[in-house]
Amino acid sequence: MKAKKIVSLMLTVSVLGSLCACKEKPTSSNEPTETKEPAPTTSKETTVETTEETVETKATTESRPVVEVNDESEDPIVIYGYDESFKALMKTYLPDTAYEFVLLPEDEYFKKLDQAMKSEEKTPDLFMCDKEHLQDYSYSNKSLDIRELGFTAKDIEDQFVYTYEAAQDADGAVKALSYSLAPSSILYNRALAYQAFGSDDPNDVLRHLESWDNILEAAQDINLNSEGRVKLLGSISDIRDTFWASHTGKWIKDGKVVIDKDFNKYFHLEEVLMAESLTFGAEYGSQEWADYLKNNESMMFFGSLLRAKDVIGYVPGHEEIATEGENGTHSVTDETKTDGQKDGKTSETSGSGETSETLPPPEVTGWAILPAPEASYDGGVWLMAASTCDKRATAATILRTLTMEESTMEKMALEGIFVNSQTVMKKCAADPFFISDFLGGQNPYAVLVPVAERIKVSVDTEESTYAFREIETLLQAYLSGEIATMDEVKTQFTVGLQELFGLT
Length: 504
Prior knowledge:
The chain is of the alpha+beta class. Among the domains are: 21-181 and 376-406, 3-Layer(aba) Sandwich (D-Maltodextrin-Binding Protein, domain 2), CATH 3.40.190; 236-263 and 460-504, no CATH class. It has 19 helices and 15 strands. It has helices at 3-10, 13-22, 86-93, 109-118, 131-138, 161-165, 190-197, 202-209, 212-225, 240-244, 261-275, 287-294, 305-312, 392-403, 406-414, 422-430, 444-454, 461-479, 486-501, and strands at 33-36, 77-81, 99-103, 126-129, 177-183, 185-189, 252-253, 256-257, 300-303, 321-325, 328-332, 341-342, 345-346, 367-370, 377-385. The strands form five sheets. It has a six-stranded mixed sheet with strand order 1-3-2-4-15-5. Strands 9-6-14 form a three-stranded antiparallel sheet, with helices on both faces. A two-stranded antiparallel ribbon has the order 7-8. α3 (86-93) links the parallel β2 and β3. α16 runs antiparallel to α17 (444-454). It is globular, with a radius of gyration of 25 Å.
């Protein structure tokens, strides 16, 4: 992307500088709620302008009359959430919106949210939802169809498709919109990759990790060559969510349970990982699991940048180097570094790809990012309008600002948020301003945007949910020896789904 385009698309440097310099960090508080009451910009007479379009979803394209949304209350909108950083977004991008933010502990959040929905006081108008609970609330009568907030298909056409498909109910109504996305990838330790493959360059490493067969072979080689001191993965569960992410086959077809090649492949991979001790056997996501990564013992993990921040201390890119230009000091990106090149030094390998030294050169440090064999996501934050919402115009304004307004999302992207705009994130992916020193000069969005575009959401949500739960139960029984053969696994899986869905 040319410099002029970067400036016009991502704001001028002076604006960027003032934005970063003046942005206040959210303050921590032990209080469960916070009320912000400036002069409200919406009242019960306020409406949101809409067009004649309706939201078209995978399940239905039926037309509905345009809904005129109003605020029926003059009180501040009540927002329930578990992430305190949301207050900073409201302060920065919706400073004139009167709101009350009810902050709840994450481990108690959904229980207390349900209790609040049944109460007569301080019922939620808008609430946060995570990936794990999204389908439950989308399929319930606790949330509103976004068409009831005046939104149309045109309003969400620039959003990543999976984010609203994952929030559809059985009739195809979209019940939530995401403002913070978490597409997943492979993040690997460059030094350990150099030891294993003779190079830490992502283009070279990808050849060893681009398929499940490659990953299994790499796990075997690393374990053998290090005499078990280093493992590719920390847990046999590392592959689970990514493996099943793009499974689109039906589990029940024409009234019969289907066991496909993915079923067989998954059990084979997990069996070999455990039988040959190719992982450390840690519980996925545990502190022990994270410590193996931090201590240079596990080479890689599957995860989003949000997970990388928690596990390995990932720091977003777009660091600036001050230079003197015609119009004074401005920021530019150091474009002289490339993958595998740090501080003017390159990693040297022989023609065979093997190193002449056991250990990598001292400049090979840090982490790098690659696409995983399947496109997946491991989190994200959605906003849903509660069925108790009497501030629909204000709720619509918040959703529109954080998930549809390009100028707002450009600024959010500068703060390290993977926003729900294909247009904005493609600009970030093409912009050298977003290279990350933490990732050795890579632009993570160049990897993650194509991933987000490819993510699929299962159409048979209920069947898939129960099938995956049954698979994990049977896998543990099989690996522990409680179930002796794969034939018995398949029989129990078939009978289990037949009984669950009343098949004969």
